[in-house]
Specification:
Radius of gyration: 42 Å
Order of helices and strands: EEHEEEHHEEHEEHHHHHH
Helix content: 25-40%
Strand content: 5-15%
Number of domains: 3
Number of helices: 10
Number of strands: 9
Distance between the termini: 123 Å
Structural class: alpha+beta
């Protein structure tokens, strides 16, 4: 038995195999069973559009919205640290711009690169270092940059052990006997900035002798003594200073040898 269709134009029932309506002559080929237009092409187009939108949305999310993990220090090595000075009074430094540029080169997305442009690097501590001491390189950046670029920063710090400082040269002057209160027995004021004092030499000093040695170092840098005893003592040898204590910075004024001697003399003096 043949299926019957209905003409979409006039509504007349037409045999299923008819190509044209025998009432009004309208073409029946583009209409499916029951006189209703087939929806298959529309469904296929809808599915295709949905797939395209989904794929586009995924790539947009992946490139713009997905959080990116950014490791800030794993590419930094010990060779990025410059060392200077001798064991016990060494200094370190880094080239923050160079480190940042190297990290940016390894970034794979524009978001990472823009975020990394906001990062700076610093190292601490920087001074008074000995072989075996540990220093830390830290990445610093505005905290809002993580949200702006949807970044999850990791490894913001990295610790290194320093071991490249030169050993101290053990240069020793002849042993000097110092009488604190007798300027006539005053010896070379440059003694304490010309060589590192040995531990034995420092440990043999009395508290007053250690203080006198410390004062000699200060006197060599125009320090103004306020106590009458010391002001008078150094005035007699032409070392009356003009820089008051509040304006005097030992790290800036002393040489590395003097600063090393000063720290160890001070420690010995304070042990009494």
């Amino acid at each position: 038995m043949l299926d019957n269709n209905f003409c979409p134009k006039c509504g007349k029932q037409v045999a299923g195999e008819a190509k044209f309506c025998d009432g009004c002559g309208a073409e029946m080929a583009t209409f499916g069973t029951g006189g209703k237009k087939s929806r298959m092409p529309i469904i296929a187009v809808a599915v295709a559009v949905t797939i395209v939108v989904a794929v586009a949305g995924f790539f947009f999310w992946n490139s713009k919205l997905k959080p990116i993990d950014v490791d800030l220090t794993s590419s930094i090595s010990k060779t990025d640290i410059e060392v200077a000075g001798t064991d016990g009074s060494g200094k370190v430094s880094i080239d923050s711009v160079s480190i940042k540029n190297n990290v940016i080169k390894q970034a794979s997305t524009d978001r990472e690169k823009e975020f990394l442009k906001k990062v700076d690097y610093e190292i601490s501590p920087e001074t008074k270092l000995s072989n075996g001491d540990r220093v830390t390189i830290t990445a610093k950046y505005p905290i809002e940059a993580e949200d702006k670029y949807n970044i999850k920063a990791s490894n913001v710090r990295r610790v290194f052990t320093i071991s490249n400082f030169k050993e101290k040269e053990e240069k020793r002057a002849s042993n000097v006997t110092v009488n604190l209160y007798d300027p006539q027995k005053y010896t070379d004021i440059d003694y304490y900035n010309s060589a590192y004092l040995s531990d034995a030499e420092i440990n043999s000093m009395t508290k007053d002798q250690a203080q006198r040695a410390i004062n000699d170092i200060y006197a060599n840098h125009n320090y103004k003594f306020t106590t009458k005893k010391w002001a008078s003592f150094y005035a007699k040898i032409g070392k009356q200073g003009t820089i008051p204590a509040e304006d005097f910075n030992e790290e800036e004024k002393f040489t590395s040898i003097e600063y090393d001697n000063y720290l160890r003399l001070k420690k010995h003096r304070d042990s009494f």
